[in-house]
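[retry 2/3] 3-dehydroquinate dehydratase: previous attempt timed out, resubmitting with same input.
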Amino acid sequence: MSIIMVLNGPNLNLLGTREPATYGHETLADVEAMCQATAESLGHQVECYQSNHEGVLVDWIHEAGRRIKTGEVLGVVFNPGAYTHTSIALHDAIIGAEVPVIEVHISNVHAREAFRHHSYISPVAAGTIVGMGVQGYLLGIQGLVAKLGK
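[retry 2/3] 3-dehydroquinate dehydratase: success.
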């Protein structure tokens, strides 16, 4: 049974209260419980992390890379939040640590402000899911498992 790491970036700790018309009413705890249930149904476990700090997210990507090499971790489902549009460091961490990542966004970033249309993560992600609400996390888990054939 492999572990799937679910990483969440800045402001995702505010799910359920931050702009519910855009992000929904589910809390981060709700999302984590749904992810755990989905992973378990596929024979895997989930570890969920959230940080508002870019360097912490980089460190978790590095950790995922080390744990993938030992066979403990399968990959990462990652909602980088606003760092999607700004972080070359996260882009480089994914490449350097050789981590299969499914990028997830709750809202359809392509239907929002122009600055949200560019992602530094998408070019290095194994797949991207946008605009499916918190169900996107579950699709990300399923997609990661299917893509890696595990």
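[retry 2/3] 3-dehydroquinate dehydratase: Helices lie at 20-23, 28-41, 54-69, 88-97, 135-148.
[retry 2/3] clearing retry counter.
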